């Protein structure tokens, strides 16, 4: 049996979650690291969520050391693969500290805070946008950041709501998305095309902006050589 399951079955998860309320930052670091390790097992994910760990983990995001914050967000990212947890994390007001980590965190912290799992759930989308995430996602589409695909994944989710489309346009996302179609991976091109399609379908203003950025030649190239889904979107 997986050692993670054995440890969880001994009743350790509730004890660990209670320790997240400690004022000792070193305790935070050790506990969150242990919970992160336990959360790798899918059964443990549910046990951690059922132990009411989400709000204490978000508390650590606000108050913990750099290492504790990173491991806390990695644990939340792990839990967010469970459908019920997406809702619980969203309702616990996690987005502002997660967005702060996108702005100020290490590459690892930014990678785990990319919010893709959470932005899939419709009720979370407006909250994610209101937390100011789009500005930083546009910045992370710079190839030097090494996160183009993940950033575009989240934007394609957010572009399905009015607030998301408006923010993408206001934060300068359109020229960057066109550049992704020209230069990025197959996955990045596909999701950038999907995002631009959402913008153009719902706003003549954004459609004109997209055309002004010279999107037609890269779209023609994508229609000829892209993935089946990308060709469908371009068509």
Automatic annotation (TrEMBL):
Catalytic activity, as annotated: S-ubiquitinyl-[E2 ubiquitin-conjugating enzyme]-L-cysteine + [acceptor protein]-L-lysine = [E2 ubiquitin-conjugating enzyme]-L-cysteine + N(6)-ubiquitinyl-[acceptor protein]-L-lysine
GO biological process: protein ubiquitination
Pathways per UniProt: Protein modification; protein ubiquitination
EC code: 2.3.2.27
Pfam family, one: ARM_PUB
ARM repeats: 11-53, 132-173
GO molecular function, one term: ubiquitin protein ligase activity
SMART domains according to UniProt: ARM
Positions of the U-box domain: 2-233
InterPro entries (alphabetical): ARM-like, ARM-type_fold, ARM_PUB, Armadillo
Domain of life from the UniProt record: Eukaryota
Keywords, in A-Z order: Repeat, Transferase, Ubl conjugation pathway
Signal peptide: none
Function summary: Functions as an E3 ubiquitin ligase.
PANTHER family in the record: U BOX DOMAIN-CONTAINING (PTHR23315), U-BOX DOMAIN-CONTAINING PROTEIN 4 (PTHR23315:SF7)
Official protein name in the record: RING-type E3 ubiquitin transferase
Highest classification ranks of the organism: Eukaryota, Viridiplantae, Streptophyta, Embryophyta, Tracheophyta
């Amino acid at each position: 049996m997986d050692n993670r399951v054995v440890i969880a079955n001994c009743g350790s998860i509730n004890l660990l979650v209670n320790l997240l309320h400690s004022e000792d930052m070193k305790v935070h670091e050790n506990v969150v690291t242990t919970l992160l390790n336990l959360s790798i097992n899918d059964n443990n994910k549910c046990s951690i969520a059922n132990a009411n760990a989400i709000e204490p983990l978000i508390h650590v995001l606000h108050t913990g050391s750099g290492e504790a914050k990173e491991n806390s967000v990695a644990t939340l990212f792990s839990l967010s693969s469970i459908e019920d947890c997406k809702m619980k994390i969203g309702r616990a007001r996690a987005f502002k500290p997660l967005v702060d980590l996108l702005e100020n965190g290490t590459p690892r912290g930014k990678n785990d805070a990319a919010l893709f799992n959470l932005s899939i759930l419709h009720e979370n989308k407006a909250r994610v946008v209101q937390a100011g995430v789009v500005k930083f996602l546009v910045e992370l589409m710079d190839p030097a950041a090494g996160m183009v695909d993940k950033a575009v994944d989240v934007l394609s989710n957010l572009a399905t709501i009015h607030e998301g489309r408006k923010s993408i346009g206001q934060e300068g996302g359109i020229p960057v998305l066109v550049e992704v179609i020209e230069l990025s991976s197959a996955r990045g091109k596909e999701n950038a095309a999907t995002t631009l399609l959402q913008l153009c379908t719902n706003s003549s203003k954004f459609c004109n902006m997209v055309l002004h950025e010279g999107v037609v030649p890269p779209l023609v190239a994508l229609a000829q050589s892209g993935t089946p889904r990308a060709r469908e979107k371009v068509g």
